[in-house]
Amino acid sequence: MSTSPNTILDRTPLIAGNWKMNMDHVQGTGLLQQLAVCLTDAEHDYGSVEVALFPPFTTLSVVRSLIQDDGLNLVCGGQDLSQFDGGAYTGDISGQLLARLGCKYALVGHSERRTIHGETDETVNAKAKAAYRHSLTPVLCVGEGLDIRQAGRHVQHTLTQLRSGIEGLNSDQAATLVVAYEPVWAIGTGEVAGPEDAQEMCHAIRAELTRLFDTDVSAQVRLLYGGSVKASNAAAIMHQTDVDGVLVGGASLDATEFANIAGYERQATP
Ligand code: PGA
User: Fold this and answer.
1) How do 75-78 and 222-226 pair as beta strands?
2) Residue of the nearest CA to atom 7 in ligand 1?
């Protein structure tokens, strides 16, 4: 099947806020209320993008309820999920529990999970499959550390993570996937990869998805960049051909800043 320009245009930009281990349920409520005001401000029309929030598990329920009660144009997701569906897994949260709360997404393979919790590519793959079992869309995080970038092996490394992460997915699943390229050296450091670095990697990821599936699938997959994204650099990143969104950590904790990222279209084209 050939790829129509419309298929490509249908990649609704995704602006995702990863609150990490911040914002208890009271603080999260406050942030969401501020965000609702900033986002609906005419200055920051965000109607053409999808905005997703990833609060900590303890804050997810209140965020989800507020979104629903106030009819906010926002969706939410889990920062992680178990590869198992339920049972004796103390401390873990299953896809089923997230789906039950009305989550749409689940982050899988965030570099902090890989580094701090020792998640392997196999675990990440199992988590991606668990997400699909519960009708959640996995946001598969991939990206290289500084040593790998300096050695010039960043594309090879990231594509290996990609292939392992999506191993065994069928075309229908792969077409709905979201992949977040997050160079580890740019996360929370203030170091941002240049827009052209984001484009280089997102282009390589899309080409790899074409090779593994076909252009019809690869043209539908949304590719995000993450790593020190702010309102001041979001537009330049978002204007790259293969970049369909951003995964924002620190800057998502500031309502005005995050709303300005979601309203990147109103910022001067670089
Ligand atoms: P950062 O985090 O925006 O604070 O760099 C991004 C992420 O880890 O998803």
Assistant:
1) unpaired
2) 249
